[in-house]
Amino acid sequence: MEPTAALPATGSPLPILFVNFHGTLGGGQVHLLTLLDGLDRSRFTPHIVCCEEGPFAEALRKRALHPTLISFGKGKRRYLFTAVPAMFKIHRLLKTLGIRVVHVSGLQEAKLTAYAAKWAKVPMVWVVAP
Is residue 11 situated within a structural domain? Predict the structure, then answer.
């Protein structure tokens, strides 16, 4: 299957959700920014979820990309009190925005986004940054 086959028939850009766990600006975030900088906006519409405020969210805003902040929480208690509600928020976002592909680049993102993507029947791609 050719990559263009996934584009909607109307010619409208394919909405993609990028999920990032860290607010810092490390290697994974720089890799994601580079990917976003090279993304053909006539073919793809990027939507970004950041799990915390920080330099990465600021770098996105400088590129006129406005991230949605959804906290996944930290520590052992995160799953019950923060991560489960976050999964439902991401699921709602997937449905509301008509997301066709989810992109994650780390273990935390993958663990906490996979269920929402599965429930929404949206494929998830887990990319390991160099």
Answer: no
7 assigned to some structural domain: no
Which CATH number do you get for residue 90? Answer: 3.40.50
How many C-beta neighbours within 10 Å does residue 77 have? 10
Instruction: Tally the C-alpha atoms within 13 A of residue 66's C-alpha that lie toward its C-beta.
Output: 0
pLDDT digits (tens, 9 = 90+) for 20-39: 988 889 888 999 999 999 99
CA distance 65 to 46: 8
* Residues near 110 by beta carbon (within 8 Å), at least 6 away in sequence: 104, 124, 126
Predicted TM-score (pTM) of this structure = 0.86
Mean pLDDT for 4-18 is 73
**Rounded mean pLDDT, 59-63:** 96
| Total domain count, the chain | 1
Domain span including residue 120: 19-126
Two structure tokens written together for 58: 């600021």
